[in-house]
């Protein structure tokens, strides 16, 4: 499937900035609130990248999932914020998303890069220096490193690793853009960035607060991130 053209041309030198405050979101994370409203509030607060991760108990399937992806992508387009699809390359191509995020249990990075072409962003989860190097060789634009802290948002998360792997990868000279993920709160965001991440990827600290607090919550994250850069 070739699908719709990607909407935004993302320059490689912009990737670090896009990772600063990365919202990962699906309807199961929104605790009954409208995911579109949560995403719009998060965009108003200043999130820099959004990943559609429709996964876990009660996740939408089929056309309802497709329709939600389109609505969230439209909201991101209106703000000029890139929209990434988790795991599902077919969906990303069908809606003309700006990229895909995959893990070690998904299709290989090389295969996904071949399918999405050079214009779309490719994010890959890595848990060791070897996985990080292989992902970069196969065309990853950025790495997702986690779980940094305990998380309730991913049932099959690997053991918590703290900020150790981020620092190790940087000390090995791996300079690719990286984002920390897993249990990250505004209070912890500075430590993640100081360890070497270009930004933080967050589910519950944004989607799990009352909708009226999402915007100020995101602004609070951005303050801590900027202080740590
Ligand atoms: C930014 C970011 N980093 C890591 C992940 C996790 O990806 P994966 O290991 O494939 O797990 P699932 O999210 O698919 O359950 C991510 N989604 N985003
Ligand atoms: C989607 C995801 N991936 C992880 C990894 O370790 O790769 S942790 C995680 C869940 C992040 O959600 P929260 O911010 O609520 O902890
Ligand atoms: Mg995955």
Descriptive overview:
Belongs to the thiamine-phosphate synthase family. 2-[(2R,5Z)-2-carboxy-4-methylthiazol-5(2H)-ylidene]ethyl phosphate binds at residues 151-153, 183, 203-204. Its cofactor is Mg(2+). The longest helix is centred in the first third of the chain and has 18 residues, at 62-79. Strand 1 (21-25), helix 2 (35-45) and strand 2 form a beta-alpha-beta unit. This protein has 10 helices and 8 strands. The protein has a single domain (15-228), classed as Aldolase class I (TIM Barrel). By secondary structure, the protein is of the alpha/beta class. Strands 1-2-3-4-5-6-7-8 form an 8-stranded parallel beta barrel, surrounded by 7 helices. The protein has helices at 15-18, 35-45, 62-79, 89-95, 109-116, 129-137, 164-171, 186-194, 204-207, 211-228; strands at residues 21-25, 49-52, 83-86, 99-102, 121-126, 142-145, 178-181, 199-202. Helix 2 runs parallel beside helix 3 (62-79), helix 2 runs parallel beside helix 10 and helix 8 (186-194) packs parallel to helix 10 (211-228). 46% of the residues are buried. The structure holds the ligand Cc1ncc(COP(=O)(O)OP(=O)(O)O)c(N)n1, the ligand Cc1nc(C(=O)O)sc1CCOP(=O)(O)O and magnesium ion (MG).
């Amino acid at each position: 499937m070739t699908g719709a053209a990607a909407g935004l041309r993302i320059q490689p030198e912009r990737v670090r900035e896009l990772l600063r405050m990365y919202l990962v979101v699906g309807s199961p994370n929104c605790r009954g609130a409208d995911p579109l409203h949560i995403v719009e509030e998060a965009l108003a607060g200043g999130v820099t990248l959004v990943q559609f991760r429709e996964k876990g108990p009660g996740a939408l399937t089929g056309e309802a999932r497709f329709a939600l992806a389109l609505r969230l992508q439209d909201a991101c387009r209106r703000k000029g914020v890139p929209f990434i699809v988790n795991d599902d390359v077919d969906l990303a191509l069908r809606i003309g998303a700006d990229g895909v995020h995959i893990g070690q249990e998904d299709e290989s990075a090389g295969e996904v890069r071949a399918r999405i072409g050079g214009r779309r962003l490719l994010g890959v989860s890595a848990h060791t220096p070897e996985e990080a190097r292989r992902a970069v060789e196969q065309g990853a634009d950025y790495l997702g490193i986690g779980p940094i802290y305990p998380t309730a948002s991913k049932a099959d998360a690997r053991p918590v690793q703290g900020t150790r792997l981020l620092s190790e990868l940087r000390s090995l000279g791996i300079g690719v853009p990286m984002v920390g993920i897993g249990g990250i709160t505004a209070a912890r965001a500075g430590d993640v960035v100081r360890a070497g991440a270009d930004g933080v990827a967050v589910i519950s600290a944004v989607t799990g607060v009352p909708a009226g607090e999402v915007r100020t919550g995101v602004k609070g994250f951005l303050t801590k991130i900027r202080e740590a850069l």
